[in-house]
Design goal:
This protein has about 400 residues and is an alpha/beta fold. The chain has a domain of about 220 residues: FAD/NAD(P)-binding domain. It contains twelve helices and 19 strands. The strands form four sheets. Strands 6-5-14-15-16-13-17 form a seven-stranded mixed beta sheet, sandwiched between helices. It is globular, with a radius of gyration of 21 Å. Bound molecules: flavin-adenine dinucleotide. The site of flavin-adenine dinucleotide has 32 residues, from helix 1, strand 2, strand 3, strand 17 and helix 9.
């Protein structure tokens, strides 16, 4: 039985704890935040990520807490609400939805409850201050409460600003993508059940159901590296940025400046592009710490849970050092593919002058592009290869 420390209780850390605990490891999780509190708003999880959540035994609870989009439908509209086309995301296997929307806080409620049931200790308000590997096969860790403990393996699952990465790979830094994302949460009218993308020159605004009575709005556009917005002004600024959008988005944009608390959130999007190896001795990085992506393919969460499942399988099946090397070799091409496609999608959407050409290629080849993306993900990912996407 390996003694494993997981740093960070986000999607990657919680899922790694579930995956490794099942593989018989003795897992401890430390999380910097003093209580379970995650930036609100929604997240969507596509079928390839849901397949991994099913493997961890939590997919049903997640789908019950979120909203499954019927037939994986994604409706593209002009900024005024007139229709362009509809595509469908593939389901990877019978019984696995093509796309789930869920509040982030709900996802973490499900994951943390499962950790508690498994008896995995999570030490909140705790982080790592120093890592030392004085002998092969052991990592000495000094925690923020000044205690020192030794582990067979340390997993840095502490996100884009990873403290573990900063200790061992200080040269790897987040790179600003040139994009800002604005998000807000609203009451969902019962009839609004599709994922909707409204397309304007240089800007996109999405609507995604995330529960029986909530949806979230997400708007992407280029923002200057130096842009700073006072959080008190976020609702007004989001309203102003997307004022040109109408159709189904109009009532939600209007609510931004009203009394409703729309949980508005601004994020300046950064990426981590890190060469292999993703481990040094017995310390390995997973999730955003190793490969944070721009959000245009909505795949960061799916990549984090796939990392967790693949690492758990490899650790259960052979020596730790081989498992860590193989982990990076298997996962890096998949994560790099997602990063590259996502960046390209963001960049082409940001070019106002390419708007008409983008709409034409969406109508002519939108479904082909979706199917091609998921087919390539399945081809690259040996873990998912057993469950090839079925056509919608
Ligand atoms: C605007 C935006 C929209 C997105 N939308 C989607 C989407 O719809 N679908 C999708 O799949 N992905 C989406 N993503 C990506 C997704 O959010 C991330 O890929 C995913 O959350 C990564 O999980 P993680 O656990 O690796 O990192 P995180 O979620 O960042 O979790 C890291 C955890 O570690 C903790 N931590 C940090 N530092 C320390 C430390 N030093 N010590 C201890 N703990 C620490 C943090 O508090 C946190 O709990 C989006 C990203 C952005 C920016």
């Amino acid at each position: 039985m390996h003694e494993v420390l997981i740093v960070g209780a986000g999607i990657a850390g919680c899922c790694a704890a579930l995956s490794l605990a099942r593989s018989g490891c003795c897992v401890t999780v430390v999380e910097r935040q003093p209580r379970w509190a995650f930036q609100s708003s929604g997240i969507f999880v596509y079928g390839n990520g849901l397949a991994q959540f099913r493997e961890l035994g939590v997919m049903e609870e997640l789908t019950a807490a979120g909203f499954v989009v019927p037939e994986g439908r994604n409706s593209y509209l002009q900024a005024d609400g007139s229709p362009i086309t509809t595509t469908r995301y593939p389901s990877p296997a019978p019984g696995i939805p093509a796309i789930l929307g869920i509040k982030r806080a709900e996802m973490h409620r499900v994951l943390s409850a499962r950790l508690e049931r498994l008896g995995v200790p999570v030490r909140l308000g705790t982080t790592v201050q120093a890592l030392d590997q004085p002998e092969p096969g052991r990592v000495q860790v000094r925690l923020s409460d000044d205690s020192t403990r030794s582990f067979d393996l340390v997993i840095g699952a502490d996100g884009i600003r990873s403290g573990v990465r900063a200790l061992l790979w200080p040269q790897v830094q987040p790179a600003y993508s040139g994009f800002g994302v604005w998000r807000s949460v609203h009451r969902r009218p019962p009839g609004l059940v599709d994922k909707i993308m409204l397309m304007a020159p240089g800007k996109r605004l999405g609507i995604m159901p995330i529960s029986a009575d909530r949806l979230y709005l997400f708007g992407t556009l280029p923002e200057s590296r130096h842009a700073r917005f006072d959080p008190a002004d976020w609702p007004r600024t989001m309203h102003e940025r997307f004022a040109g959008f109408g159709g189904p988005a109009r009532p939600f944009l209007e609510q931004l400046t009203g009394a409703d608390d729309a949980e508005v959130l601004y994020t300046a999007v950064e990426e981590i592009v890190m060469p292999l190896p993703w481990h040094q001795g017995r310390v390995v990085l997973i999730g955003d710490a190793a490969h944070a992506s721009t959000p245009f393919m909505g795949q960061g969460g799916a990549m984090a849970v796939q990392d967790a499942v693949v690492l758990g399988r490899l650790l259960a099946g052979g020596p730790v050092d081989t498992a860590l090397r193989t982990f990076g070799e298997l996962r890096a091409p998949v994560c790099r593919f997602v990063q590259d496609v996502s960046r390209r999608v963001g960049e082409s959407g940001a070019q106002a002058e390419a708007h008409e050409a983008n709409l034409r290629s969406l109508v002519e080849g939108g479904q082909r592009a979706v199917d091609g993306f998921y087919a390539e993900l399945a081809r690259l990912d040996p873990a998912a290869a057993a469950e090839r996407p079925t056509p919608p």
